[in-house]
Amino acid sequence: MIELVGISKSFTGKKGSIHALKNVSISVKKGEIYGVIGYSGAGKSTLIRCVNLLEKPDSGSVIVNNVDLTKLSPGKLRVARGKIGMIFQGFNLLKTATVYENIALPLKLTGLSKQEVEEKVTRYLKIVGLENKHHSYPSELSGGQKQRVAIARALAHEPEILLSDEATSALDPDTTEAILELLLKINRELGITILLITHEMNVIQKICDRVAVMENGEVIEEGKTKDIFTSPKHATTKRFVNSLFSHNLPDEILSTLKETGHVVSLSFFGKASGEPALALVSKKFDVYPNILSGSITQLKDESFGQLLIHLKGDFTEIQKAVSFLKQQQVLVEGVDIDEGKNQRVS
Ligand SMILES: Nc1ncnc2c1ncn2[C@@H]1O[C@H](COP(=O)(O)OP(=O)(O)OP(=O)(O)O)[C@@H](O)[C@H]1O
Q1: C-alpha to C-alpha distance for 182 and 148, rounded to whole angstroms
Q2: Are 87 and 162 in contact (CB under 8 A)?
């Protein structure tokens, strides 16, 4: 649906040339929610703005529905852009216009009749849960409500793709949750493909099917959300994942625990559960597992659990226990147990 192929973009700043994007390629399938995550300055905004050519890449192709947008005439580009909606961190609403007018004014510019405009505004305000706010002004709305208006405004043009530029970054955690739920609903019920950028791993965790991690203008890791969570490869990806699963084990306690065994992290998905496997471990092998911390998180389609445990016992028995856990489809990390090296909590 969206193919960015070898996109590069430089800006000339006071300190010279800045390579915001260096040969970036990503591919978003129809119907999926695709997230791009990175720290400030990674190039996310530049990338998402290239999709509707708000930013024109220096080189590379922007292919949407099999058409290279960089090759279109201004007229055809305008039509193609009509299929791509966008929402922003700052909502971008007209302060002096009512909720109704904010959605209706851009619709009128497309040549729709008054009645068609009215029907669409009513329909989409209902979908975003603001059917009773037609006459309110943005200043009378909460941040979450403002973002709902912006979403309704984007949806009213019946796009196939919705671009979300940090849409939840200015919102509190509960409101963020509600807006993410709304994006999921839009994706599932209206079949809209969503490409979003964020610096928050919980956004990726809750709604994205796949994710690209960006750093210094490059995609450093890419894959299914599930795979990125269970086996992040790049140090930056690990930092993002750990931001959700911080074990916060003080170094002093960790050193004490290492004297009597190994500290390992167990990750498990859906039906595979860490705890029954752990109960079996203590029966089958001469080891004493002790749960140090644990959490279960809901990804878009399944649950993901993590347990940090201390395995007390003889090294050979611990090795056997770890092999057994791996056979039970539990991912075991945090100790170089196979090579018998010193343990390391990641
Ligand atoms: N119009 C511009 N002129 C000059 N430099 C720019 C411009 N837009 C972006 N940059 C630079 O390009 C790099 C990437 O910026 P970009 O905004 O894409 O990153 P980001 O990952 O979205 O970060 P943030 O979350 O802080 O917006 C940064 O170094 C930024 O300063």
Answers
A1: 9
A2: yes
Residue type, 184: L
Residues 306 and 215 in one domain: no
* Whether the complex's predicted ipTM surpasses the cut of 0.95: yes
Q: How far is the CA of 41 from the centre of ligand 1 (A)?
A: 5
DSSP state of 314: -
Residue from 46, 166, 213 whose mutation best tests the ligand 1 pocket (most atoms within 8 A of CB):
46
Spatial separation of the C-alpha atoms in residues 55 and 45, rounded to whole Å: 9
* Tens-digit pLDDT profile for residues 67-84: 999 999 999 999 999 899
Q: How many domains does the chain have?
A: 2
Euclidean distance between CA atoms 90 and 241, whole angstroms: 26
Two structure tokens written together for 93: 């609403």
Q: Tell me which residue range forms the domain holding 67.
A: 2-242
> Residue 33's closest CA among 171, 205, 153, 176?
205
User: Which residue blocks in the chain are alpha helix, DSSP H?
Assistant: 44-51, 74-81, 99-108, 114-127, 143-155, 173-190, 201-207, 225-230, 235-242, 251-260, 274-284, 315-327
- Ligand 1 centroid to Cα of residue 28, in Å, is 22
**Atom from ligand 1 closest to the CA of residue 21:** 14
Owner of token pair 């300055």: 41
Spacing, Cα 298 to ligand 1 middle (Å): 32
Per-position b or e across 321-331, b if 16+ CB within 10 A of its CB: bbebbeebebb
The CA radius of gyration of the chain, in Å to the nearest whole number, is 24
Ligand 1 mean position to 46 CA, how many Å? Answer: 6
Q: What is the pLDDT of residues 22-56, one digit of tens each?
A: 999 999 999 999 999 999 999 999 999 999 999 99
pTM for the predicted model, two decimal places: 0.85
Distance, CA of 48 to CA of 164 (rounded, Å): 8
For residues 258 and 206, state if they share a domain: no
Q: Which of 204, 220, 242 is the last residue of a domain?
A: 242
Residues with CB under 6 A from ligand 1: 11, 13, 18, 20, 38, 40-46, 199
